[in-house]
Design brief:
Order of helices and strands: HEEHHEEHEE
Helix content: 55-70%
Structural class: alpha+beta
Shape: globular
Distance between the termini: 26 Å
Number of helices: 4
Strand content: 15-25%
Number of strands: 6
């Protein structure tokens, strides 16, 4: 059952997200920075009351409600369309759910989200994010690619572990 794969990926993602945040909180002071790759990648512990790029930062309750609604809609869709799920969409939905839940846990328990992944790309300081954010973005991208491939007549053959064109 593909639905079980969705929830397995979700659980794994939540564990990775929450453990990474726990490690940051227990080993770093707020606003401290550890340079991993100079002028490119650092761990920088901050708390974010908003969403990506700190949007809705002054409306944390609205953001929490919006995330919870998206969570419920996604669960409803997964349950309703279980027979139409393929491996790639199951993985992508699991990644999206784990990201939503990981950040919801932080918002509900702490009132903000722990962010710590900091990249500088060509002198641009990319907004600081966390593993949950990564799972959401990668899950959405994976789902979009899967939809495009399926609409063009392709499908993922899980036995051969590759995409094939439908005739």
């Amino acid at each position: 059952m593909m639905k079980n794969k969705v929830y397995t990926v979700t659980l794994i993602g939540i564990i990775i997200d929450q453990v990474s945040k726990m490690l940051i909180k227990s080993n770093m002071e707020l606003f401290s920075k550890i340079v991993i790759i100079p002028k490119f990648f650092s761990l920088y512990y901050v708390k974010n009351k908003g969403a990506a790029f700190s949007i809705f930062g002054n409306m944390p309750c609205l953001l929490t409600i919006m995330c919870f609604v998206v969570f419920l809609l996604l669960i409803y869709y997964i349950e309703k369309e279980e027979k139409n799920l393929d491996l790639i969409s199951s993985i992508s939905f699991g990644m999206i759910l784990s990201g939503i839940i990981g950040n919801l846990i932080d918002r509900i328990l702490y009132g903000s989200v722990v962010d710590f992944l900091s990249f500088k790309i060509f002198s641009y300081n990319f907004p600081i994010f966390n593993m949950a954010d990564t799972f959401i973005v990668c899950g959405v991208i994976l789902y979009i690619i899967n939809v495009i491939i399926c609409e063009k007549g392709g499908a993922y053959d899980s036995r051969k572990r590759k995409f094939k064109r439908k005739n």
